[in-house]
């Protein structure tokens, strides 16, 4: 993701700018959070190791420091993206529980928040006003106005999440809590810790119990999730022309580059060098 403009903690991108910003089929790690509103058409993304199709009348959340990969944006797509500074939610008070939003996106089987058409039109109009106002530097309260409008969008998202979060029985809630805790640990330690036993011990459960619960919530075993995290990170590193395969292997704590190359090819059907070369002309 490109750098945000100076002197603002909120920036809005239109469809043409979004197409220029993101390279299809190239993993990236956004340094800022963002909301992507889809009014028309669709886009396909890979996020948390799974592919999702985001349809019209939906808002997608891009979490900072989580690997994303845009696979396709339809020709007829009409999009608006709100790029948000990391500290925005701490500076601007909101009364709803941010934890509910975090847990929704961490455990939901879908990436998008879908709105009824009339409610999405309201969200779209607010973001459209934000896009127009961000260019009016002569207006003395532009940043304050952008903050207020973004808070309004956040409340509309929170309302939709609250209405769509299903009631869960205690067993399901415990599974999802364990899954969220595992994902948080994984994001911190996966580069150094490839063994599921490490995470199970940290969470106070057996590796079998952990893997079975992860499978029920995410569709993947613990081993598969660790491997996917490693592959996603490797892809991000390999598209950098200045990073050698041996360096990536070392950063991801493989015994040597041959072990890393064997692992990477087994999961992607291409060698690290082949994968890196495929982006050298972009």
Explain this structure to me?
The chain is of the alpha+beta class. The protein is built from 12 helices and 8 strands. A 5-stranded antiparallel β-sheet has the order 1-7-2-5-8. Strands 4-3-6 form a 3-stranded antiparallel β-sheet, with no helix packed on it. A hairpin with a 2-residue loop joins strand 3 and strand 4 (50-54). Helix 4 runs antiparallel to helix 5. The longest helix is centred in the middle third of the chain and has 23 residues, at 142-164. Residues 94-107 have low confidence and may be disordered.
How is this fold's topology laid out?
Blueprint: E1 10-14, H1 15-21, E2 33-40, E3 43-47, E4 50-54, E5 58-62, E6 68-73, E7 78-84, H2 88-91, H3 98-107, E8 112-114, H4 117-133, H5 142-164, H6 170-189, H7 196-203, H8 207-218, H9 222-238, H10 245-251, H11 257-268, H12 272-277
Antiparallel strand pairs: 1-7, 2-5, 2-7, 3-4, 3-6, 5-8
Helix pairs in contact: 4-5, 6-8, 7-8, 10-11
Strand order of the largest sheet: 1-7-2-5-8
How far the N terminus sits from the C terminus, by CA atoms, comes to 15 Å
Largest β-sheet summary? 5 strands, antiparallel
- Overall pLDDT: 81
Poorly predicted segments: 94-107
Tally of extended strands?
8
Overall form: globular
């Amino acid at each position: 993701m490109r750098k945000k403009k100076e002197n603002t903690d909120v920036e809005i991108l239109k469809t043409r700018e979004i197409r220029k910003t993101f390279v299809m089929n190239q993993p990236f790690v956004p340094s800022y959070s963002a909301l992507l509103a889809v009014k028309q058409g669709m886009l396909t993304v890979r996020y948390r190791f799974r592919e999702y199709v985001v349809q019209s009348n939906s808002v997608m959340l891009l979490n900072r420091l989580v690997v994303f990969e845009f696979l396709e944006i339809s020709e007829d797509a009409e999009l608006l993206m709100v790029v948000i500074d990391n500290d925005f939610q701490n500076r601007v008070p909101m009364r709803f529980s941010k934890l509910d939003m975090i847990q929704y996106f961490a455990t939901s089987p879908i990436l998008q928040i879908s709105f009824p058409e009339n409610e999405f039109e309201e969200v779209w109009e607010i973001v459209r006003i934000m896009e127009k106002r961000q260019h009016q530097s002569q207006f003395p309260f532009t940043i304050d106005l952008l903050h207020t409008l973004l808070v309004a969008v956040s409340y509309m998202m929170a309302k939709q999440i609250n209405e769509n979060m299903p009631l869960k029985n205690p067993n399901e809630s415990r599974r999802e809590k364990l899954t969220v805790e595992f994902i948080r640990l994984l994001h911190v330690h996966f580069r150094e810790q490839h063994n599921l036993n490490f995470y199970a011990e940290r969470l106070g459960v057996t590796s079998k119990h952990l893997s079975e619960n992860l499978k029920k919530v995410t569709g993947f075993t613990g081993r598969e999730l660790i491997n996917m995290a490693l592959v996603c990170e490797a892809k991000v590193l390999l598209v950098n022309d200045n990073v050698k395969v041996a360096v990536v292997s070392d950063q991801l704590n493989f015994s040597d580059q041959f072990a890393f190359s064997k692992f990477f090819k087994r999961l992607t059907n291409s060698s690290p060098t082949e994968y890196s070369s495929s982006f050298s002309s972009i």
